[in-house]
Specification:
The structure holds 3 protein chains of 3 kinds.
Chain A: E1 4-11, H1 22-37, E2 46-50, H2 57-64, E3 71-75, H3 82-95, E4 100-108, H4 139-154, H5 158-173, H6 187-192, E5 195-198, E6 200-201, E7 210-219, H7 220-224, E8 231-239, H8 259-272, E9 281-283, H9 289-298, H10 307-314, H11 329-332, H12 339-350, E10 362-366, E11 373-379
Parallel strand pairs in A: 2-3, 2-4, 9-10
Antiparallel strand pairs in A: 1-7, 1-8, 4-7, 5-6, 8-11, 10-11
Helix pairs in contact in A: 1-2, 5-9
Chain B: E1 2-3, E2 7-11, H1 13-22, H2 33-38, H3 48-63, E3 68-76, E4 84-96, E5 99-108, E6 111-121
Chain C: H1 2-11, E1 18-19, H2 26-36, H3 52-55, H4 69-79, E2 84-94, E3 104-119, E4 122-135, E5 138-151, H5 155-158, H6 170-177, E6 182-186, E7 192-193, E8 208-212, E9 216-225, E10 237-244, E11 249-255, E12 267-275, E13 278-285
Parallel strand pairs in C: 11-13
Antiparallel strand pairs in C: 1-3, 2-5, 3-4, 4-5, 6-7, 6-8, 9-10, 9-12, 10-11, 12-13
Classes of the chains: A alpha/beta, B alpha+beta, C alpha+beta.
The structure holds zinc ion.
The site of zinc ion has 8 residues of chain C, from loops.
Organism (chain B): Kutzneria viridogrisea
Protein name (chain B): Acyl dehydratase
InterPro entries (chain C): ChsH2_C, ChsH2_Znr, FAS1-like_DH_region, HotDog_dom_sf, NA-bd_OB-fold, Thioester_dehydratase-like
C-alpha cells in the first residue's frame, strides 16, 4: 500500500445518548479530522463509509460544503468495513482517483437503533432465515455458538474470556474519552455478571454507543507538508473466507476459527514485510471477548488454541508482551464499529495517546470479526 | 447380548390399508390419501395397532412359535408414510425371572418411527 | 379448569365394560397375520397378543360413547383450543394368550392429565388412560395409552420470526411442512450442502436436488439464550448447531432438554414445530 497516510483523526464525544442527528455527528467528526490534518472541506475530493451508515456521502458533502467528489465508495459487512475504508481510500489516492479522502462512521447506536436487540428487519433475508427463526438472532448469540465450540476444542474457559474484558476495562479506566473511564472491573465481577447468551456473560459483550469517528487519508507526500506527522499505511487488506456468512459461518469445517482474519493477516505481513514479533501495539476488534483470543491465533501471535496461555502468561496489558487496545477497545472506550480503534492506532504511532506505549513503530489494527473483515498496519 | 435379525417392511399403500382394516381401524388417514393430505399429512400412514403388531412380529420371528409375549411397550416417533421402508432392529438386553427384554427400534427415512421394548418368555 | 375437569373424569373411575363385537375367531386372526405378514405357526390356534385391542375396536360406524374417559378428556381439551392430537406411548401387558371362542370386554379409566407443556409441536397436555381387557371377570391384558393434545401454532409462537423463502430454498420449507428434513444434494455430482443455493459450489451444476435426511445427528455447538427477549420465545432457551448424519450442519432450537444437560456430542433427532405459516425444524434428545 505505497504512498498513503492518515493525516488527521477526529471524533465526537462517546455517549449513550448524543441528542443529535447521525448526520450532525458525522459532520462534527469530519470537520474535527480535517482540522487535525490542517485541511479544509474544499480540499476533500473523496469519501468512504460503511454500507450500514445512514449518512450518504453527498449528504455529508453538502453539510461540510465539499464542492466536488471524484471518488465515493461504501464497504459492506458491518464492523468488518472499518479498516477497509482506509484501504479503499489509500487505493483511491494511489490511483489518483482522489487526493484527500474522508473515511467516516457515525451513529446513534445506543439511543437509536441498537444492534444488540433482535432485528426483525435483519431476519427478513433469505440468508438469515437459517438462523433468526431458529432463535439465533443477536450478535452475542452468533458469537456464543463459536465460543462454545472453541471452549470444547481447546479447553478455554469463561475466565479466559474474562481476562480480555478485565484488561480492556483497565485501559479504559485511565482514558478520559472512554465511557468506562475510572471504572475498572475484576475477574470475579466478570464471572458474576449475568448471562446474555451462554457461554457469554454481560461483560464479554461490548457496550453500545452513540458517536462518530472520521479519518483523513491522503498521499504520503502531501501528508509530509501537513502539520501532523504522517502515519503511514504500511499494509491494508480485506478478507472473506470459504463458505462465508455474516456472523454465522457455521457450515465450514473449522468452527472455532476466523479464516477471513487469517487471510487478512497473511496479506498484512506480506505487504509490510513485518511479522507478528514486529508489532508494538495491536488494536484488535473486541465486540465480544472470545474473538480476541481467536484473532491472536489467526494473526500468528500464538498457536491455535494457545491464546488462553498467551493471555495468562504473556499478557495483553500495557506492560504485557503485546499491548492490545490501549484506549480500552470497544469493551471500554466506545463501540464505533472499530473506527475509534484506528484513531487510537494513529495516536500510538504519533506518540500522543493517553495510554502511550513506548517506542511504537508499528501498530496492527483489525476490523469486525465473524464477518468479512479487514486490517491495517500503520507505522512511521 | 443377542442382536436380532433385521426386519424390513416395504410400506406400500396396500400394506397400510390392509393392516388398518385387519386391525379394524377405519380412520380416513389410514386409507384415504386425499383426506390424509387435507389433514396436513404427506400421505396415508401406518396406524398404531399395526406398529404394535409389527414390533411383536419382529420379536416372535426371531423367538419362534413357542415364545410367549408378555408385553409390548412403545414410544411413537415420526409417522410412517406410504412408500417408505420401515426397518426394525433390536437386541435382547437382559433376562430376569425367565422374561427376556428385547429393545426394538423401527426406523424409516424420516427417523425413528417407533422405539420400545418387548418382554418375552423364550421357549 | 382443565385440571378440574380431569379430576372429575378420573373420579368417575373405570368405564363400564364394553364387549367386543365378535368372539376371538380364526378368520380375523388370519386377516391380521396375512396383512402384517406374520407367519407365526402358533396362530390362529392362539390369538396374537398384540391383537387384543383389535377385538374391541369400535368399527366403521362407532356408536356415541358416554363413558369413554379418553373421549371425554379430549372434548374438554378441544374446547380449550388443544385441538390437535398425536399418540406418544402405548404399553401393553398380556397376562395370557387368548383362544378362539373367548369373548373379551374392555374398561378404561383416566390415569393422568399433565400440562400445559411446551413441546416441539406446540403447547399441549399429555393424557394417559389405562384399559383392561377381561374374559368374564378375569383380566387378560392391560394397556397404558398416552396422547398429546396440543395447539398447533399456539400463542407463544404466533409472533415468532418466520423465514424468508426464495426459489432456491422453497423445497426445504415445503419439506418441513410434510415432516421431512430435506438436505440439498447436487443432482450432477451428489455433494450435499446446507444451507442450500442455486449452484453447486463443487461442480457448478445448476441442478439441485435433495435427500430427505434421517434427522439424526449430534450437537456440534450450542448456546443458551437469556437476553434480550426474542419474539415468540420464552427465556431461556437452547439453540443447537447440529451435525447431521448426512454430513451437513443445521441450526435449530433444542427442545425438551434442560440447559444444564446439553453438551457437545449430545445425540439428537429432528422434530417439527409449526410457527405461523411455516414449520421449523427443532432438535430433540434421542
Ligand atoms: Zn455438483
Amino acid at each position: 500500500m505505497k504512498g498513503a497516510a492518515i493525516a488527521g483523526i477526529g471524533a465526537t464525544e462517546f455517549s449513550k445518548d448524543s441528542g443529535r442527528s447521525e448526520l450532525r455527528l458525522a459532520a462534527e467528526a469530519a470537520l474535527s479530522a480535517l482540522a487535525d490534518a490542517g485541511l479544509k472541506p474544499s480540499d476533500v475530493d473523496g469519501m468512504v463509509s460503511f454500507t450500514m451508515d445512514t449518512n450518504s456521502e453527498i449528504a455529508l458533502a453538502r453539510e461540510l460544503g465539499v464542492p466536488e467528489l471524484s471518488f465515493f465508495s461504501r464497504v459492506n459487512y458491518g464492523g468488518g468495513a472499518a479498516c477497509a475504508t482506509v484501504q479503499h481510500a489509500a487505493m483511491a489516492v494511489a490511483t489518483g482517483a482522489a487526493e484527500v479522502v474522508l473515511c467516516y462512521r457515525a451513529f446513534n447506536e445506543r439511543s437509536g437503533h441498537r444492534f444488540g436487540r433482535v432485528s426483525t428487519a435483519a431476519a427478513l433475508t433469505v440468508e438469515n432465515s437459517w438462523s433468526y427463526p431458529m432463535g439465533l438472532g443477536t450478535p452475542a448469540g452468533t458469537v456464543a455458538m463459536v465460543a462454545r465450540r472453541y471452549m470444547h476444542e481447546y479447553g478455554a474457559t469463561s475466565e479466559d474470556f474474562g481476562r480480555v474484558a478485565v484488561t480492556m476495562r483497565a485501559h479504559a479506566a485511565t482514558n478520559p474519552r472512554a465511557w468506562f473511564h475510572g471504572r475498572p472491573i475484576t475477574l470475579a465481577e466478570h464471572q458474576n455478571s449475568r448471562w446474555i447468551t451462554e457461554p457469554l456473560h454481560l461483560l464479554d459483550c461490548c457496550q453500545e454507543s452513540d458517536g462518530a469517528v472520521a479519518l483523513v487519508v491522503t498521499s504520503t507526500s502531501r501528508a509530509r507538508d501537513l502539520p501532523r506527522p504522517p502515519v503511514l499505511v504500511r499494509a491494508a487488506a480485506q478478507g472473506s473466507g470459504p463458505d462465508q456468512y455474516v456472523m454465522a459461518s457455521y457450515y465450514r469445517e473449522d468452527l472455532a476459527a476466523l479464516p477471513e482474519m487469517n487471510l487478512v493477516g497473511r496479506q498484512l505481513w506480506r505487504q509490510s514485510g513485518l511479522e507478528p514479533s514486529d508489532v508494538d501495539v495491536a488494536v484488535l476488534y473486541d465486540h465480544f471477548t472470545p474473538y480476541v483470543l481467536i484473532q491472536l491465533e489467526e494473526l500468528g501471535f500464538c498457536g491455535r488454541g494457545e491464546a488462553r496461555h498467551f493471555l495468562a502468561e504473556q499478557g495483553i496489558g500495557l506492560d504485557g508482551r503485546l499491548p492490545v487496545n490501549p484506549h480500552g477497545g470497544q469493551l471500554g472506550e466506545a463501540y464505533i464499529h472499530g473506527m475509534n480503534g484506528i484513531a487510537e492506532a494513529v495516536r500510538q504511532v504519533r506518540g500522543d495517546s493517553v495510554n502511550q506505549v513506548n517506542g511504537v513503530r508499528h501498530v496492527l489494527v483489525t476490523a469486525g470479526t465473524g464477518v468479512p473483515t479487514s486490517g491495517l498496519v500503520l507505522g512511521v | 447380548m443377542t442382536v436380532l435379525p433385521e426386519l424390513r417392511v416395504e410400506v406400500t399403500p396396500t400394506f397400510i390399508v390392509s393392516t388398518a382394516l385387519a386391525t379394524r381401524d377405519f380412520q380416513d388417514v389410514h386409507h384415504d390419501r386425499d383426506r390424509a393430505i387435507a389433514r396436513g399429512s404427506k400421505d396415508i400412514f401406518l396406524n398404531i395397532l399395526t406398529t404394535t403388531g409389527l414390533v411383536q412380529r419382529f420379536v416372535t420371528d426371531w423367538a419362534g412359535p413357542g415364545a410367549l409375549v408378555r408385553g409390548v411397550s412403545i414410544r411413537l416417533g415420526v409417522p410412517c408414510y406410504a412408500y417408505d421402508t420401515l426397518v426394525f432392529s433390536g437386541r435382547a438386553v437382559s433376562t430376569s425371572d425367565g422374561v427376556t427384554t428385547v429393545e426394538v427400534v423401527g426406523r424409516n427415512s424420516m427417523g425413528d418411527h417407533v422405539t420400545g421394548t418387548v418382554r418375552v418368555v423364550l421357549p | 379448569m382443565i385440571t378440574d375437569e380431569a379430576e372429575r373424569i378420573a373420579a368417575l373411575g373405570p368405564s363400564p365394560r364394553r364387549p367386543a363385537r365378535d368372539a376371538v375367531n380364526p378368520a380375523m386372526i388370519n386377516n391380521w397375520t396375512e396383512a402384517l405378514g406374520d407367519g407365526n405357526s402358533a396362530y390362529p390356534e392362539l390369538a396374537p397378543p398384540a391383537m387384543v385391542q383389535v377385538w374391541t375396536m369400535r368399527g366403521l360406524h362407532p356408536a356415541a360413547e358416554e363413558h369413554d374417559p379418553l373421549a371425554a378428556m379430549s372434548a374438554v381439551l378441544d374446547e380449550a383450543g388443544y385441538t390437535s392430537v398425536v399418540a406418544t406411548n402405548c404399553e401393553q401387558t398380556y397376562h395370557r394368550y387368548l383362544r378362539p371362542g373367548e369373548h373379551v370386554s374392555v374398561s378404561s379409566v383416566l390415569d393422568a392429565v399433565v400440562g400445559p407443556k411446551r413441546t416441539a409441536l406446540g403447547e399441549g397436555w399429555f393424557v394417559t388412560t389405562r384399559s383392561t381387557w377381561f374374559v368374564g371377570d378375569e383380566p387378560v391384558a392391560e394397556m397404558l395409552f398416552r396422547i398429546l393434545k396440543f395447539k398447533p401454532g399456539n400463542k407463544s409462537t404466533a409472533s415468532a420470526l418466520q423465514p424468508t423463502v426464495s426459489r432456491d430454498t422453497e423445497f426445504f420449507w415445503q419439506g418441513t411442512k410434510l415432516g421431512e428434513l430435506r438436505v440439498q444434494r447436487c443432482s450432477a455430482c451428489g455433494v450435499v450442502r446446507h444451507p442450500p443455493g442455486p449452484m453447486c459450489p463443487r461442480c457448478n451444476a445448476l441442478d439441485p436436488g435433495y435427500v430427505v435426511a434421517t434427522g439424526l445427528g449430534e450437537v456440534f455447538s450450542y448456546v443458551v439464550h437469556h437476553h434480550p427477549p426474542v419474539p415468540g420465545r420464552e427465556l431461556p432457551y437452547v439453540v443447537a448447531l447440529v451435525e447431521l448424519s448426512e454430513g451437513v450442519r443445521m441450526l435449530g432450537e433444542l427442545v425438551g432438554v434442560p440447559p444444564d444437560e446439553v453438551r457437545v456430542g449430545l445425540p439428537v433427532r429432528v422434530g417439527f414445530r409449526p410457527v405461523g405459516e411455516f414449520v421449523l425444524p427443532v432438535w430433540e434428545a434421542r
